[in-house]
Automatic annotation (TrEMBL):
Biological source species: Fervidicola ferrireducens
Origin: domain of life: Bacteria
Source lineage: Bacteria, Bacillati, Bacillota, Clostridia, Thermosediminibacterales
Keyword flag Signal: no
Record's keyword terms, sorted: DNA-binding
Name assigned to this protein: Small, acid-soluble spore protein, alpha/beta type
UniProt xrefs under Gene3D superfamilies: Small, acid-soluble spore protein, alpha/beta type-like
Xref: Pfam families: SASP (PF00269)
GO molecular function terms noted in the UniProt entry: double-stranded DNA binding
Function: SASP are bound to spore DNA. They are double-stranded DNA-binding proteins that cause DNA to change to an a-like conformation. They protect the DNA backbone from chemical and enzymatic cleavage and are thus involved in dormant spore's high resistance to UV light.
Amino acid sequence: MARRRGVMSEALKYELAKELGVADIVAREGWGSVSSRDCGNLVRLAIERAERMLMEDNAKNKK
């Protein structure tokens, strides 16, 4: 069975975890110890960041 590649890099996930204040849990206990609520918030932040980048790219391309 082929291993599925993650959508987000570990660096991005850790950066978002820092932003949410759960990076210490990740460092100490791993991703499995992060609450589902915090994981959901991490995904929400990633989506917001991606949308922002797309809007900025679209604005640059229209110029």
